[in-house]
Design a protein that fits this description.
By secondary structure, the protein is an alpha/beta fold. It has a single domain, classed as Rossmann fold, CATH 3.40.50.150. 33% of the residues lie in helices and 26% in strands. The longest helix has 16 residues. Bound molecules: S-adenosylmethionine.
């Protein structure tokens, strides 16, 4: 299975979700539940949801990276895989009108949707850029905080994503993400299942490997701040697979 094939499948799934032709069923939150209920279940407070446009909360995340990012007024924030923009809009309220938030996503329909929400709600400090998180359309050392929510598991080359996050951060910059990891290696059947890739399962790394890659990119002060376990059915082997949704914070010190 090539990286391009995986990316095409992921893009196809999220373009359909953006246009509401398919329901969101990302691994950690399940199907058949309203987007707002899902969003509250993964760590957003009522107050968080009240200060962002409702259409941005599509229930696609697996945590709330803005809750651990300690965002300050006037900071510049970058969201990797911004989707419809939930964390971009939340961060925008925290950094204020003199701050700036950039969302990057490889799915054009998501960028179009988030940009339309920003426009119709009068946001002046947010921007959405079409691009891949493995090759960020962002200058070196231009960002104070990188956030991401349930996206890095979808990237076939995660080491590249962590190196790119490190490149764009200023010295002292923070990296605060929510993502899906596993306790042990997934079966080859799952790894080769494109639906499981798009559903945030097949691309999940073992937690230790995930954390090691973040350190290898150069980050220090690495902490896992929360860990929520859940199970999904491996339909190939008719058994349950244990996954975890974790939030991680690290820092660029150099
Ligand atoms: C599970 S959704 C999460 C969206 C958003 N972070 C949220 O919490 O609502 C994953 C998003 O990441 C984007 N994505 C996946 N892989 C990507 C990559 N390699 N580069 C850029 N965007 C990517 C998808 O297009 C999709 O919008």
């Amino acid at each position: 299975m090539t990286n391009e094939k995986i990316k095409d499948a992921v893009k196809a799934r999220y373009s359909q979700i953006a246009e509401r032709r398919e329901q969101s069923c990302c691994a950690s939150c399940g199907c058949g539940i309203s987007p707002i209920t899902k969003t509250e279940a993964i760590g957003y407070s009522r107050e968080d949801l009240e200060c962002i446009p409702e259409e941005a909360a599509m229930g696609l995340g697996c945590g709330n990276p803005t809750a651990i990012a300690e965002l300050k007024l006037e900071e510049t924030v970058l969201d990797l895989g911004s989707g419809a923009g939930i964390d971009v809009f939340l961060a925008a309220t925290k950094v204020g009108p003199k701050g700036r938030v950039i969302g990057v996503d490889m799915t054009k329909e998501m960028i179009d949707k988030a940009s339309a929400i920003a426009k119709s709600n009068g946001y002046t400090n947010v921007e959405f850029r079409l691009g891949e998180i493995e090759k960020l359309p962002v200058d070196d050392r231009s960002i104070d905080v990188v956030i991401s929510n349930c996206v890095i598991n979808l990237a076939p080359d995660k080491a590249k994503v962590f190196r790119e996050a490190y490149r764009v951060l200023r010295t002292g910059g923070k990296f605060s993400v929510s993502d899906i990891v596993t306790e042990r290696a997934l079966s080859n059947e799952i790894r080769n299942d494109l639906n499981a890739w798009a559903g945030c399962i097949a691309g999940a790394l073992e937690q230790q490997q995930y954390l090691r890659m973040i350190k290898e990119a150069g980050f220090v002060d690495l902490h896992v701040l929360s860990n929520r376990e859940f199970y999904v059915e491996d339909s190939n082997n008719k058994e349950m697979v244990k996954l975890s949704s974790i939030t991680v914070r690290a820092c660029k010190r150099e």
